[in-house]
Amino acid sequence: VPDHFDGSDRSESRIQPGRSSAQNGIAAHVEALPLVDHHCHGVVRRELSAAEFGTLMSEGHGPDPADGGLTSGFYDSQLGFALRRWCPPVLDLPAHATVADYLGRRAELGPDEVNRRFLRAAGLDALCVDTGYVPEPVLSPVEMAALAGARAGGHEVVRLERVAERVAAGGAGAAGFAGAVRAELAERARTAVAFKSIAAYRVGLALSPDRPDDTEVTAAADRWLRKAGEGAPPRLADEILHRFLVWCAADYRLPIQFHVGYGDADTDLRLGDPLLLTRLLRALEPVGAPVMLLHNYPFHRAAGYLAQVFPHVFVDVGLAVHNVGHRAPVLIAETLELTPYRKFLYSSDAFGLPELYYLGAVLFRRGLADYLADALRRDAMTGDDARRVADLVAFANANRVYRIGDTGEPASVSAVS
Ligand SMILES: [Zn+2]
Question: I need a surface site. Which of 113, 125, 149, 395 has the fewest CB within 10 A?
Fold first, then answer.
């Protein structure tokens, strides 16, 4: 058992007497796998009040006013119960500890120790960290990897809209905008492993397929900057400019992550359906940049379809996995109805709280192990196949697409390729 599983009681719970040795074997294999978290954010280092903890746990919604503003209401949720089930043992408390006991123990240990324990317990081999969402100071990708003991390191994912907003705030006028964005992206592409688009949050995913020319970009930038000049913050929300950024990113052949589906109240979920991206995906296919559809819930089956029909499309169900709590196995099984095994990746989409990096990993492992044990029970694959599929999903697909870590295939693949 690798050292990053200290404090976890997962093994005991996964080996079940009613199961065959092959089914128990796959559960043990999945538990010990190193994971690549291909989309997450930084963790906060400071002490958190109970109210702040509750707010960071949820997707940003405040407490129910009719509940007297009690943040304890957050825990009567799928995520709240998952947290009480899995997180207390990492802090030396029994599973299902009360919220008060849990927060007390958390305060006693202090943020550095709590961060270290959860990130270690997640069993991560590498992290790809979106550095574009920083409402408060968080750890850098390198600091995250050190804390997690991730041998293959912490890697940066550059948020495209933040680059554009920085260029705009830096005083590049409309005429200089396209060139300044391209120069900045060229600089960032030297060290980043991927780009990320939050078009879903700003204008929705119904992006036109065509690459806008510089005349269109300049006109759109002029409209945007003039609005920004009238006192509005330079918050990008323009279909042409989001599309311009995606096409610029595609020139680097680095993976482009798209926020899809589930998110906080800032997103219009109807416009986050990945099927709205179909025409742009078709246009991007010959370019060769992998497209990573993030989160996807509740459109995960549609995302699986896109991953099946487009060679450059990959999917995950990060963020949703820990928010659906004990239903994570159902979510993973539904996603894997159609998503090819070489197109499915792990991510937590965790931000701020170290618990979320751990919960994402625990619930993902359990869901994947259940799915594979079921496949074995149905004689849908052999034990060797199940282990190879687990390796692809846990780390090998991410290593291949992001060109990080050990880029080798799982051992048994070489025999058939
Ligand atoms: Zn994210």
Answer: 113
